[in-house]
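To whoever is on call:

I kicked off a structure prediction for a single chain this morning and the downstream step that reads the tokens threw a length-mismatch warning. I double-checked the sequence; it's 424 residues and nothing unusual in it as far as I can see. Pasting both halves so you can look.
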Amino acid sequence: MRRAGKLGQLKESILLALDVLRRNPMRSVLTVLGIMIGVTTIIVIGAVINGLNANVLSNISQLGSSTIICYRFSWATLGRLSPAVLQRKEMKAEWTEGLAHLPHVVAAATDAQIANYEVGAGSSEVRRGNLRAKAVILEGDTPDIAKISDFELTAGRYFNNTDEEHRSPVVVLGHITQKTLFPNGEDPIGQEVLLEGQVFTVVGTLAEQQQALGTGENPQDNIALVPFSVIRKLHPEFKDFVLFAKADSTENLPLVVDEAREYLRRMRKLPSDKDDDFVILTTDTFVDFWNEISGGIFIVMLAVGSVALLVGGIGVMNIMLVSVTERTREIGVRKAIGARQSNILTQFLLEAVTLAALGGTVGVVVGSLIVVAIRLAFSSFPASVSFNLVAIGVSVASLIGVFFGVYPAWKAARLNPVEALRYE
């Protein structure tokens, strides 16, 4: 019976709160507007970060959990690199052979990518008749890169050791490059194209790559892959190589990292008292780096949403104080017939929580609609509203109601019943 009585009081308090909203619609809308905007911000930003996480982690996973990347400086860093770091000596292509012979390494490869990194695009041109693919990224790889990176071919093959040894003029085209040069659906395999003024035979085409950040065309799809020996012939001046290696298992990856570090220190003739002048990157490096970035974005946007929630909370406190004033005589009557301070306190606190939770619920609905609009506008971007986001949105709104509803509820509970009955 006591439980039924408490449920009845809870229901009555919620109905009273909704009645306050109904009697003062404009004031009520303005009251919950701040909370609604704050929760909407949290929902949308959280959903966008969920989508970014899915894209970025998917791209990182293409490297493989047992892959290491050796380069002269880190790609996973914020801010400008120091001049001393930028002036580090390049990696040498022949070191790949040494990496390949390390224990627990199953494959190693050298990569050379010629692109304009300032604008995030290539600097080469590929032609076929009157058709031209511009701003193409030119990449040269040793054949074992296919065992390391997750290249997905839509047709043809990747180049092999024979192509590498004989400097065969063969090329694998990216998705955008292929569509530009073969716009009418022709089969590109076996066709000839001009790459930097030389004739190349197309032996393979790549599938469209998922873009980690943003939408639209991925610059990495506008790419031409050639054997590493060919790119050294085309651009003998280019020596900024990246070395890849693949461990035989994820469990042995830390061991491979240590072995590769020791090997590279020997090759670079570093004394024991000198720090590494190179970095070894793994998928964990990029995951940690992205978590740092996404965490910072979420904190900033949470701060923006908190301002709106604070304004909304002040609005809830304001309307509850007005409600206490308007219902002073009602409070006096309730106390005169036996209502205790705790009953009055609970009633007004529940009203404040109901107001705030309603604003939070509306914010969740509006935020979800915005996320749906984002999904429709950018079909390749997997923004999603998770249950955790909804729970956070409604919980935060309810806590705002508790925090800002305590003072009005306490003020109502402390009213003198005699003076309250005399109030006009």
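Update from on-call: the warning came from a stale cache, not from the record. Cleared it. Sanity check on the structure: The CA atoms of residues 40 and 366 lie 6 Å apart.
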